[in-house]
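Q: What does the assembly look like in three dimensions?
Context provided by user:
Components: two
Sequences:
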Amino acid sequence: NAGVTQTPKFQVLKTGQSMTLQCAQDMNHEYMSWYRQDPGMGLRLIHYSVGAGITDQGEVPNGYNVSRSTTEDFPLRLLSAAPSQTSVYFCASTPGSGLGYTFGSGTRLTVV
Amino acid sequence: GDSVTQMEGPVTLSEEAFLTINCTYTATGYPSLFWYVQYPGEGLQLLLKATKADDKGSNKGFEATYRKETTSFHLEKGSVQVSDSAVYFCAPSSGAGSYQLTFGKGTKLSVIP
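A: Here is the predicted structure of the complete assembly.
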């Protein structure tokens, strides 16, 4: 099925550990984004990409890295996990302005 | 910067009641406007959109009209169902030609039989 696939769905990390959240889309969308969702905060943009090889920071980029080597994949790396990064993470893609995003089903991350 | 103010929830309605969720925004330029819905345990789904003034977006019985003069995009449905229970997010794009969205905090709707 066409869409945005995120893995894993759930993850528990210890403080200081690193990990990569995977995101892949098969719709040939140029634009991809990572958001985090926290209770009462809505969704906040972490990083985004306008195409392969191009990434930029969003509202809350600290502690996260991204890369975009292909159109399909946009992984999010946590460098040294902290309890403040406990959240639900969503990857999303869009073919362009005004067309709306397709979201993945999310990764629920707990840092202890 | 861009911002969105959404009606605070939670909102609890009886089945077949009328729904309004207010949304006002500030954004650079001339944004496109979106409503997303999140069902329990799932990601966000695009519910409807409008890309220019006075446009009405509609889907699944929900409607919202792009009001440029009041910078609003209120969501309405004439008769809600239990299956409409979800969290609803208003999200303008960051100005004309932009693909980035600013999300409201979300409004949780519970519909009881």
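Follow-up: The mean pLDDT of chain B is 91.
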